[in-house]
Every structure is written in C-alpha cells, then in structure tokens.
Amino acid sequence: MRILLVEDEPELALWLSKSLARHGGFLVDWANDGLVADRRLQVESFDAIVLDLGLPGMDGYTLLKTIRNRDDRTPVIILTARDVLTH
C-alpha cells in the first residue's frame, strides 16, 4: 500500500514514515508542502493520504477541498497537533 504523508516537520515525517514502513509494511512518500502534495496527487496514485492541517504553501483544509473538488476519492487521515478543529 502506497501512502502520501503530507507533513512539514521533518523529524515527525521521518518517524512516521519509518513506523508505517516497519510496522505496517507501507511504502511512504513524503511531501512537506501542500502545493507540492497537490501537484503529486495530480500525477501519481496513492492508496491513502496522511494529512497535516498546518502546512506551508497550501494548508491541509484547502488541499483536502482541492482534491475532493477534482473528485479524488483517495482516503485521507488527518493527523494534526491542533487541539481544536475550526472548519
């Protein structure tokens, strides 16, 4: 299973990537910016997306809305350090 991890904190992204690969056998690709993730999602296929909300370039809410408006139905797991969702 191929996952796109969209996370701007390199240490957290590295830890998550290693954990998902080691414990779940997932192939993890990483994007550290919402715009980069959006471009990748337009040309590559993933089985799931792990999405942070606080991203540079394009925030996670906007990225999710953008991909859904394109009718991209890739499952998304939102992973964020925020304690309150505002949208």
Determine the CATH topology: Rossmann fold
Write down the overall mean pLDDT.
Answer: 93
C-alpha end-to-end distance: 29 Å
Spatial ordering of strands, largest sheet: 2-1-3-4
Structural Rg: 12 Å
Q: What percent of the residues sit in helical stretches (DSSP H or I)? A: 40-55%
Would you state the CATH class? Alpha Beta
> Could you say which structural class the secondary elements and strand pairing correspond to?
alpha/beta
Q: What is the general shape?
A: globular
Question: Could you give the count of β-strands?
Answer: 4
- Major pleated sheet: 4 strands, parallel
Q: Tally the structural domains.
A: 1
CATH architectural group: 3-Layer(aba) Sandwich
What oligomeric assembly is this protein in?
Answer: single chain
Q: What is the number of helices?
A: 3
